[in-house]
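Review this:
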Amino acid sequence: MHEDTSASLTPGDSEQNQSEIEIDELSDEGRARKRQEQAGARARGRAGRKGLVIVNTGNGKGKTTAALGLLMRCWGQDMRVVMLQFLKAKTGKWGEIRAAQRMGVEITPLGKGFSWMSENIEQDRAVAQACWQQCREKIESGLYDIVIMDEITYPLKFGWLPMEEVITTLRQRDPMLHIVITGRDASQELIEYADMVTEMREIKHPYRLQGIRAQKGIEF
């Protein structure tokens, strides 16, 4: 039997088209205020759905991890998904790559590793541009419901990719196509264009506090 959880008010529960309910909003006044806010949002909103541009940025861990969670959710809804990774090396056997191969999901690392360890910046620029061309092809192909460009903010910040071209490509895409962009230091232009922006903020990190290095399943 399907259990109806629509009445649950446990913090963290997610209802379609509803904001998360804060603990201090569980009073009668808080609930009435939330209903009024949601009614106003529905009145302002356009009918139907639209493709979103989602940006995960900030100096904290979890930007790619969140994008992978969204990819998994979309895949579970029979949506056509693809992730292209700008920095992770083609030869890497990351956990998400192994999982994607078993699931039949398209996740493609196209980089050469972390750019701050590189001794050939021009080659890194060329690799980033080649990765962007593949992203454009995926975006313009009409074959996907969501395209994730993992860590594209770095080549944008370094000036290896033209921001204007990226924004133009996003503007001209299929209006129902979702785009996810991850990486630190998202530009103000990108933030202003996006529909949803989340900033991951580091509060504690085991490497800085305890010297614990990246671990299998957590970082890779």
Remarks:
- The radius of gyration is 20 Å.
- Residues 53-210 form a domain with the Rossmann fold fold (CATH 3.40.50.300).
